[in-house]
Amino acid sequence: MIRDDIIRMAREAGICTGNSILLPAPDGQIEALERFAALATAEKNKEIERLREVLNKLEYFCDGTIRRYPDEHEVEVALRREEQ
Fold first, then answer.
1. For 1-10, 24-33, 69-78, which range has the lowest pLDDT when averaged over its residues?
2. pLDDT at 2
3. CA distance from start to end of the chain
4. Distance (Å, whole) CA 74 – CA 72
5. pLDDT higher than 70, residue 68
6. Tens of pLDDT along 13-57?
7. Residue 59: left (phi > 0), alpha (psi -120 to 50), or beta?
8. Residues 43 and 37: beta-carbon distance below 8 Å
9. Considering the entire predicted model, what is its pTM?
10. What is the maximum alpha-carbon separation in the chain?
């Protein structure tokens, strides 16, 4: 997550407008902070899943080298080359 992601989530949760943190009245603070925490958790989980997908495309060998599997576009290009 980058700074802009955190600001976007704070705005969505209702605890930030512009570049200022505006906590709601005490009775609404817990709910607003819970919304922010839920948004941050969801964003973190998306980032973990994206990284998991990248790692699944890598193969580690005993000697420490890494082989990257080609993505779909690279496979299509290679198949077109073979057809020619």
1. 24-33
2. 79
3. 44
4. 5
5. yes
6. 877 766 666 665 566 677 888 888 899 999 999 999 988 887 777
7. beta
8. no
9. 0.54
10. 69
Q: Residue 67 pairs with which residues in a beta bridge?
A: 59
Q: Could you tell me the CA-to-CA distances from 79 to 9, 63, 67, 70, 76 in Å, in that order? A: 43, 30, 20, 12, 5
Which tokens is 65 given? 């080298």
Non-local (6+) Cβ contacts of 5 within 8 A are 43
Question: What tokens does 68 get?
Answer: 């990257």
Stated as kind and residue range, the H or E segment containing 62 is: none
Token reading at 24:
């709601």
Domain boundaries, the chain: 3-83
- Distance, in Å, from the CA atom of 51 to the CA atom of 45, rounded to the nearest integer, reads 10
- CA–CA distance, 44 with 66 (Å, rounded to integer): 26
For residue 29, the one-letter residue type is Q
